[in-house]
Amino acid sequence: MMIQFPSFPVVFAIVFVLTLIVKHRKKSHAQKLPPGPMKLPLIGNLHQLIIGSSIPHVALERLAGKYGPIMHLQLGEGSAIVISSAEAAEEVLKEHELVFAQRPTFFAFEVGEYGNQGIVFAPHGSFWRQIRKVFIVELLGARQVRSFKALREEEVENLIGSIASSVGSSINLTEKILRTTNSIVSRAAFGKKCRDADEFLAILNEGNKLASGFGMADFFPSLKFVPFEIFGAGTDTSATTVEWAMAEMLRNPAVLEKAQAEVRRVLKGKKNISEEDIHELHYLKLIVKETLRLHPPGALMPRESTEECEINGYNIPAKTKTIINLWAMGRNPKHWDDPNCFKPERFHQSSINYLGTNFEYIPFGAGRRICPGISFAVANMELQLAQLLYHFDWKLSDGIKPEELDMTEESGFTVRKKHALRVIATPALIS
Ligand code: HEM
After folding, report:
1. Residues 318, 310: contact at Cβ < 8 Å?
2. 268 alpha carbon – ligand 1 mean position (Å)
3. What is the pLDDT of residues 283-326, one digit of tens each?
4. Largest CB tally within 10 Å, which of 140, 238, 286, 334?
């Protein structure tokens, strides 16, 4: 029997069709978006962020539990991915650092001519590089931070004085901490206290309330951009962290006692604390770290891809808004034992720090856009906490027991405590 070979045009046609099929398969695999919840027409997944009792970082954490640490969302017309694990964050912030060095304009404050002119939302490029350099040289570098030592000490002494004048009665500690931080930041930035500190604090409060409806700070009225950035990035973040640290200690009296014992042992007999003393307050430093794990002020860190790339086999198109859920990563049981417990000891003899290399713990971000204010913020927060612990004993107002303290969060520019921290201070017996 004669075997009939197909003619050349037929072979060519078969090879051509097979090549097309393989190419199409490869392409559709590479174009696979990360998994995500079902999208509604027009709004996509927006309703999942703003409807219901959960605030956005909590809602996103829950969704990530279902769809994974790289999740795709449709936010109106925009496509977004949400990152919720250390491994995924490392892919975005280290392996594809350059691709994700951009901030999305979705989050930008379009304030007249100042829109996008500040450092926080500046597109990655030469303008951003220049302005970041100016920030570091003039305000946030180690030498500059040291040079603000005297003004920090003076403002924190004022805080202690103002609390001392109302010992025994209920005080709003949230407001006092915010005021002190605002004075430190404005004196460092402008050489004087903010002329309208009251107005500024009122606006910041109002902005936080407005933004809380959206969960992200989408807009802010009438302030010029760069000064606002210094305040917005510097004041609210640090003050919120000091407030959460005090709230966590009041809720965990054993931690409070241990921290006070350390401060009083190291500073024994001193009338006041200088910054040199702080270096020896090892437990206090663990408290700051643990507070930033559970309460990163910028819970949802915004970035954007500038070009198409592939992460864990998923295709991430150019201009994809990228939300890194720092809050979820700090509480991810894969990375932390007993993740919801406030245990500063977990950082004892641990090499994990907040400098952007341990991706399970990046409260200040990572990579080239990491927060340039780390030294400034830490010096400010540690001094306030050390002084508060040294000079006073603390209890909650209105007979509230530690375990009853309301720790509800409110999401705005930062994730704050929803209800101000009201406390009663009594002078400590320091021998
Ligand atoms: C507890 C205090 C603070 C926390 C937790 C914090 C956190 C952050 C985070 C998460 C980012 C985004 C980083 C990234 O995208 O990788 C950021 C950016 C920034 N922070 Fe902070 N911050 C704090 C205090 C400060 C202070 C005190 C200042 C200045 C006075 C400051 C100035 C900035 C600026 C200018 C940026 C934008 C950097 C850029 O885009 O290049 N921050 N911060």
Report:
1. no
2. 35
3. 999 999 999 999 999 999 999 999 999 999 999 999 999 999 99
4. 238
The dihedrals phi and psi of 214, each to the nearest 5 degrees, come to -110, -15
Ligand 1 center to residue 73 CA distance, Å? 25
194 is in an annotated binding site: no
Query: Is 223 close to ligand 1, i.e. is its CB under 6 Å away?
Result: no
356 Cβ below 6 A of ligand 1:
no
| Protein residue with least CA distance to atom 18, ligand 1 | 371
Q: What is the ipTM of this complex?
A: 0.99
* Ligand 1 close to Cβ of residue 237 (< 6 A): yes
The residue contributing the CA closest to ligand 1 atom 17 is 371
CA distance readout (Å), 77 to 3, 74, 323, 326, 374:
59, 7, 16, 24, 35
Element of type H or E holding 181: helix 173-190
Q: Is 415 in the pocket of ligand 1 (CB under 6 A)?
A: no
301 within ligand 1 shell (Cβ under 6 A): yes
**Residue written as tokens 């009665």?**
169
Which residues have C-beta within 8 Å of that of residue 346, sequence separation ≥ 6? Answer: 290, 336, 337
Distance (Å) from CA 324 to ligand 1 centroid? 14
Q: Which ligand 1 atom sits closest to the C-alpha of 240?
A: 1
Atom of ligand 1 nearest to the CA of 369: 41
| Class of residue 409 by CB neighbours under 10 A (exposed 0-12, middle 13-18, buried 19+) | middle
For the chain, what percent of residues have pLDDT higher than 90? 63
pLDDT in tens, 182-223: 999 988 877 656 555 555 555 555 554 544 433 333 333 333
Tell how far the Cα of 105 is from the centroid of ligand 1, in angstroms.
17
pTM of the model: 0.86
pLDDT confidence tier of residue 407, bands split at 50, 70 and 90: very high
Distance from residue 6's CA to the centre of ligand 1 (Å): 68
The strand pairing partners of 253, in sequence order, are none
